[in-house]
Design a protein that fits this description.
- With 222 residues, the chain is α/β, with parallel strands linked by helices.
- It has a single domain, classed as Metallo-beta-lactamase, Chain A.
- It is 22% helix and 29% strand.
- The protein is built from six helices and 16 strands.
- The strands form three sheets. A seven-stranded mixed sheet has the order 6-5-4-3-2-1-16.
- The longest helix has 11 residues.
- The chain is globular.
- The structure holds zinc ion (ZN).
């Protein structure tokens, strides 16, 4: 599996399928790709905030991926004429052969002033690999349970502070989930977010994880 970072919280997982998560490309100053270059077969959106839903509706209409999102977001997609599978927290679905589980995230969620269900994280299982995208989230104790239940190999973790965990709290998240590899996200995109990952690398490595820092446009092969 190849993991490509498109900046902020947007990742593309490429293996037997192309899975795109949180495609905030237009308006994302760090993105190095154009939305029309993305051809996902599976599209996932952690919550309704514009820096996560982003270009999802346009990409969905053009590329016609299978979409698995929390119920209220699925209704939003359907209102825009896009088919989407509604899910809820700790529920799983098979999308184009990719197993997706919706996980809790401690955060709010709305789109254009409208409530769009709980914010979520995702466990994506493809080609025998398990990747946990934590979404936008604060620290919460169920991360230990997520680690025990799913043993994700990779964790994509927000570290930017203000709207999510700080680099220091993200270390605590890594201690609970115990992934083999961790990729920090949701920092530096805007001036209000942390501009560096601070002591995250040292702390996460002490917790036994390998830290891979990707610049937007860069990939890591598992
Ligand atoms: Zn958010």
């Amino acid at each position: 599996m190849k993991i490509t970072y498109h900046g902020h919280a947007c990742f593309e997982l490429s293996g037997s399928r192309r899975v795109l998560i949180d495609p905030f490309i237009s308006g994302n100053p760090s993105a190095r790709v154009k939305p029309e270059e993305l051809e996902p077969e599976v599209l996932l959106v952690t919550h309704g905030h514009e820096d996560h839903l982003g270009d999802a509706l346009d990409i969905a209409k053009r590329a016609k991926p299978e979409i698995g999102v929390i119920h209220e977001l699925a209704v939003l997609f359907q209102e825009h004429g896009v088919e989407a599978t509604g899910m809820n927290i700790y529920g799983s679905a098979e999308l184009a052969g990719v197993r997706v589980t919706l996980l809790p995230a401690l955060h709010s969620s709305s789109y254009a002033g409208r409530y769009t269900g709980s914010a979520c994280g995702y466990l994506v299982e493809m080609d025998g690999r398990k990747v946990y995208h934590a979404g936008d989230t604060g620290l919460f104790g169920d991360m230990r349970l997520i680690g025990e239940l799913f043993s994700p190999e990779v964790m994509l973790v927000p570290v930017g502070d203000r709207y999510t965990m700080s680099p220091e709290l993200a270390v605590r998240a890594v201690e609970m989930v115990k992934p083999e590899l961790v990729i920090p996200m949701h920092y530096r995109t805007f001036p209000v977010l942390a501009q560096s990952i601070g002591a995250f690398t040292e702390g996460a490595e002490k917790a036994g994880a390998r830290v891979v820092v990707l610049e937007p446009g860069e990939s890591h092969e598992l």
